[in-house]
Structures are given as structure tokens and as C-alpha cells.
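Can anyone check this?
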Amino acid sequence: MTATGRPYTRGRSAVTGTDWAEEALGLLLGRVGETAEQVDDRFPLYAEPADGRWTTTGRGSWTGGFWAGLLWLRAGRTGSDQDRTAAAAVTGRLAPWAEADTATRGLILWYGTAPATGDAMAQALRERAAKAAVDAFDPELGLVPWGSALGGARLRARADGVPGLVPLLASAGPEGRAAAAGHLHRHLDLCLPRDGTGRPAPAWRRDPTHGWLAEADPAPGWTRGEAWLLLAVADALLLADAVSWRADRLTRAAELLLAGCAMLAGPLVPPTDARHADGPLDTSAAAITAVALLKLALVPGAAWSTVCAARAEAVLHRLAHDHLTRPGGPRPAGMLLDGCYDAHSGTAVRHELVWGDFFLALGLAALLGRVDLRRV
């Protein structure tokens, strides 16, 4: 049951009307204004659940694009020139990441620019980043390496190095589309279980002697990694207009993730580690999954369209109803709580996360018909 007493059903949502989505989106985007005042020219990362105080970064790290994206979603809702100017200013500060050695430039520069409808500067930055990403594609490895910009070994492959980078690469013409398909399929080769059972292995490193070796952290069961993979597969299926995309294999990958990771039948808000059901939840994984499901529902001719759309709406309703702060309490309204930044280190395990806010806002905006998920 939801907190309003309305039941959820497996595969079908009993949620009716859109007033709840309008309210939740308004709260999230109202929170954006408060966050902007608090962080000034820095980037929000995660906020304390007790008082909404943000931990920030100077350059944005891999999450900077989600802050720019939230500002663009707010500008799209308000239509305010002032809000567009604020969004453009933050997007401009993402420019140093365009040529940075990191596969997360997809997260940074796709989601930081794609919602910027009609903004020439954002489009130019996206084109610059896409070209740099194509140049970084390693034909021998069949992917864009994880990179060294965020520390650690450069020759790695991770589930969070695929979302955003697939549509970013694909935006760079025929060469980019070939690189996007190759990058995704190589990650599916590595991450998906070869026998079709079990959880994806989300992190790998390239050993000069032994080839690709699975890393211990994050381990299989990392639900946000599973959500990232599903999002990338959904984007690819919406782009798959040529044989090179291998649409049949992408469809099988989506079906494996949906079934093997219980994305249609498991908890609406999963634990951050599926192996530890009593551990911290991750609302950001749920929000990413909801957007991926909405995208899958748009795939022409897909048998899963109805069930994916219903499940996405149920997830969004649960997040809005049970995990989003309301006015009148001791903390700011519009905080999506119970996100888990890093359970392994114990960092921000029940917090508001900037990317969780972004994907919840994006999902709600799409549900309300305000955003075309074929373009974002």
C-alpha cells in the first residue's frame, strides 16, 4: 500500500491522475532555487538528511551535469530568462570536462546539456564533448576507457561509464554511432552474466597479462549499476536504426536485466546492495530505473511497453509519496531522501543526492509530457 492507502499491483499501477506528479515536480524544482543560493558557484553532491546542508565540489566531479540538468528542467518549467541564464552559467562551468580522460563525461555532458532546449552554447559544448569522446574510443579494447581523471587505473570498464555516453557518442554522426554501439556492447559482454543467470558484474580492469578481470568493488548486486546499464540499453534501443546496433541482443539484455534484477517485480525502491536487503535503500537507483523504464516503454513494437510504463509510474509515485520532504518540517521541502552515495565506505548512505533529484525530476517531467525522453 502507498502512504495514501492506494494499492500497487504487480505490473500495473493503481495510481490515477497527475496532481501528485505536479506537486512533487514543483517541490523538487523549488528545492533547486534553495540549493542554488546555498552552493553559489560550487556544485552540490549530497545533502544531510537532517537539515539539507549540501556537501559540494568545486569542479562538479562526475555529478556536475545533473546540477546543470536540474537547472535546465527548472528553466523549462518556469520559462524564466533568469532561470535559463543561471542554467547556462552552470553548464559553461562544465566545459573543462569535455576533453577530460573519463568515460563519465557522458554523465556530465549529456545530462548537463540535453535538457537545454534551444541553447546554442550547450549544443556547442555537447558537440565538442561528443567529438572528444569519439577520439577517446579505443578500437582495440572496443570501448572508451574509464579513464584517469577521477583517479585509479585508467584501463577499466564500469557500468556507470555507459549511461549518457551512449547518446553522447551517437550524436557525433556515423563514426560516433558506431563507437556508441561498440562501447555499450563491450560493456554488456563484460557485465552481463554469460549464462544468463545471476547479477551483473559492474566493474572491470584490464590486466596486461590476463585481460579483463572483475573488480571487487562495486560487486554484483549494486542496484545503481544495474539501473545505469538498463538506462544505457534503453537509450540504445531508441537509437537502434541500423544493424550495427544489434537490436535483438539489446532486447535480450533488457529482458535479462528486467528479470534477473527484479526491476518489474522487486521492491519499488531497492536496497543499494541486492545481497543485503536489510541495508540502506537507494532512491537514486529507483529514480534511474524509472526513467529507463519510461524509455523502454517508448521502444516501437516492444512487448514490455505497458508493464514498463506502469512500473515506472509506480516507482515515481512511491518516491514522491514516501521519500520526498514536504513543507512545514524541520528540513527543506523537495529533498529526495534515502539515497546511498557509497555503502562500502559508509559515505552519505541516507542522503539527498543531486543525481537522484535529477532523475526523479526528469521522470516526473516525462510522465507529465513536459520532456521527450527520446531527446534527453
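Reply from J.R.: I decoded it. DSSP finds twelve helices and six strands in the chain.
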